Automatic annotation (TrEMBL):
Signal sequence range: 1-28
Taxonomic source organism: Iodidimonas nitroreducens
Cofactor(s) the record lists: heme c
Protein name from the UniProt record: Cytochrome c1
GO molecular function: electron transfer activity; heme binding; metal ion binding
Subcellular location: Membrane
Main location: membrane
PANTHER family named among the record's database cross-references: CYTOCHROME C1, CYTOCHROME C1, HEME PROTEIN, MITOCHONDRIAL
Length: 272
């Protein structure tokens, strides 16, 4: 009985911790290369996304990454989640041409984007994407931060991890050396160089800054509801703490007469 109770309490507590993002990551262990450990504002049980960084990251994504990578789950209305107003999100959407249709004559046509549209992919299909990238497929970035062990730290490390290859490494044409890619060979040329974008808020666009910003944006894109999840986890833990105290008091009250011997007939049969 005691074991069962402890087990259930343990289960309940770990559910709460998992919601808060405190559960130990199974993937972090056994990593061959040590990732750069960046302090992101969205880490920890009360972490939130830095909206300004996410907006700068969106700019980096738009101006650089989106020429090769798609983000199929990203709709323009989602931009309100990182602090853009509806008008601004509408204006950004309208800068894109979306293929719609068919019209009354059965033809597809182009029109400016709306809030409900997804961001258009750079290539019509995987084969076209491969053909344009020397046979390598640039993966969709919608959930890449969740999909790779190491998550945000991995993405940051990868983007800042281009180095001169050591002498004993042979690179095929179209391959680049990256300290953090599995096998160290990557078909993506170094995407970031200093001052590639002009930030409107005056932040200096160093490689590290852009890598950090685009990582914040992609971490948000991979889990836009993270802040709600964490706050639910926290409320749940508070609720459970109060509930456990109440359960304990109730339990004591129910058993008190029996423990005091006021009901001597209870439990007699078992003893006999
Ligand atoms: C010139 C095209 C190009 C641009 C621009 C580009 N990428 Fe890539 N990216 C690729 C290709 C091709 C691959 C596949 C590499 C491979 O499989 O070796 C890739 C792979 C990746 C991966 C997966 C690495 C892994 O672990 O498998 C990530 C993450 C990534 N890119 C992020 C980005 C980000 C963020 C940007 C913008 C800052 C960006 N890329 C810009 C072409 C590009």
């Amino acid at each position: 009985m005691r074991i069962k109770k402890t087990f259930i309490l343990g289960l309940v507590a770990s559910l709460g911790f998992a919601n808060l993002g405190l559960a130990p990551s199974a993937l972090a262990a056994g990593e061959a290369v040590k990732l750069k450990d960046i302090e992101f504002s969205f880490e920890g049980p009360f972490g939130t996304f830095d909206r300004a960084a996410a907006q700068r990251g969106f700019q980096v994504y738009r101006e650089i990454c989106s020429s090769c990578h798609s983000a199929q789950y990203f709709a323009f209305r989602n931009l309100e989640g990182i602090g853009y107003s509806e008008e601004m999100a509408k204006a950004i959407a309208a800068e894109y041409q979306i293929t719609d249709g068919p019209d009354d004559f059965g033809d597809m046509f182009e029109r400016p984007g709306k809030l409900s549209d997804r961001m258009p992919a750079p290539f019509p299909n995987q084969n076209a994407a491969r053909a344009a990238n020397g046979g390598a497929y640039p993966p969709d970035l919608s959930v890449i931060v969740k999909a790779r062990p190491g998550g945000a730290d991995y993405l940051y490390s990868l983007l800042t991890g281009y180095e001169e290859p050591p002498a004993d490494i042979e690179l095929a044409p179209g391959q680049y050396y990256n300290a953090y890619m599995a096998g160290h060979k990557i078909a993506m040329p170094q995407p970031l160089y200093d001052d590639m974008v002009g930030y409107a808020d005056g932040t200096e666009a160093t490689v590290e800054q852009m890598a950090k910003d685009v990582t914040v944006f992609l971490a948000w894109l991979a889990e836009p509801s993270m802040e709600q999840r964490k706050s639910i986890g926290f409320s749940f833990m508070i609720f459970m703490s109060i509930f456990v105290v109440l359960l304990y008091l109730t339990n004591r009250r129910i058993w008190r007469p029996i423990k005091k011997g006021a009901m001597p007939w209870v439990g007699k049969d078992e003893k006999a």
